[in-house]
Write a structure and sequence with these properties.
Shape: elongated
Largest sheet: 3 strands, antiparallel
Radius of gyration: 27 Å
Number of helices: 10
Number of strands: 3
Oligomer: single chain
Helix content: 55-70%
Structural class: mainly alpha
């Protein structure tokens, strides 16, 4: 075989090997993406896709490096590239998603990769290539001042008293639910979706603790109940919850906030009243 033909055949084999690596790399990423809902919220998948397909994979392709070949030193260069193109908060967010991917890769595919390519994959992300977040006043979310909060809650209390004195049970029940939910958001720091997901059994007034299910990152957490919130929750559970009004037994799996049809209240229902009340300010 002529020398030039041997060289050509070698190049063709090399090209085939590179394409096989690209296909395998894509299979790894897709396998992880399909497994993400097991541990993470569905809402995190687009962010992971943006981090990988929008930034990390194109950069690796330019560097002629595959994901299992990335070392901390190589990732240092990617981190520098990212800091010059996106905000530090985005870099931190992307680093978290890419690091989670590498944790899975090492846990599930380390030996397979070593057998295929003779490479021991490692997580290249550490404290040295993750930037610190420096908060500026402009970056902080707007927070309603005390005057706005007081106006809003006082208006709700006034409407509640008016409905109660008029014997308007339907409006009274709706406002009792709304006032309790809003105070939980305000004093316990829960998001609207987290409040809507609360069950009666998640509230422990004796220990002054509250269990929050599937919060940010699809994780559960325990939150302290501040002393000023205890009397309100006690009143709501014993006198204002629709089950209590109908003298039904309150068990732990019953939603804390339910509709007139005795179904769990939705996030949109809680949100709609908040938005409507804001128009009056």
């Amino acid at each position: 075989m002529p020398a030039w033909l041997r060289v050509l055949n070698g190049l063709e084999k090399s090209d085939v090997a590179e394409e096989q690596k690209k296909v395998y790399q894509q299979e790894l990423i897709e396998t992880y993406r399909q497994l993400m809902p097991v541990r993470y919220a569905e809402s995190t998948i687009p962010t992971f896709a943006s981090a990988m397909k929008g930034h990390f994979l194109p950069w690796l392709d330019d560097m002629n490096v595959f994901i299992w070949e990335v070392t901390p030193n190589i990732y240092d260069e990617f981190s520098k590239y990212m800091r010059s193109n996106v905000k530090a908060a985005t870099v931190i967010n992307y680093n978290t998603h890419i690091s989670n991917f590498y944790d899975w890769l090492i846990s599930r595919k380390k030996y397979e990769i070593r057998e295929k390519y003779g490479v021991i994959a490692e997580n290249p992300i550490d404290a040295w290539n993750t930037p610190m977040r420096h908060y500026d006043e402009d970056d902080l979310p707007p927070v309603a001042d005390k005057e706005v909060v007081d106006f809003y809650l006082n208006k709700e209390r006034s409407e509640f008293k008016k409905a109660w004195h008029a014997g308007d049970n339907r409006t009274t029940n709706i406002l009792a639910r709304q006032l309790t939910a809003e105070n939980i958001m305000l004093k316990a720091g829960l998001r609207i979706a987290e409040v809507a997901a609360l069950n009666v059994g998640d509230i422990d007034l004796q220990s002054m603790l509250m269990i929050v299910h599937k919060g940010k990152g699809n994780k559960d957490r325990i939150v302290d109940i501040c002393p000023s919130l205890v009397p309100l929750l006690k009143w709501y559970l014993e006198q204002a919850h629709p089950y209590a009004l109908k003298e039904k037994r309150l068990t732990g799996d019953i939603p804390l906030f339910i509709s007139e049809q005795e179904k769990r209240i939705s996030k949109k229902t809680l949100q709609s009243r908040l938005f409507n009340q804001q128009k009056d300010y």
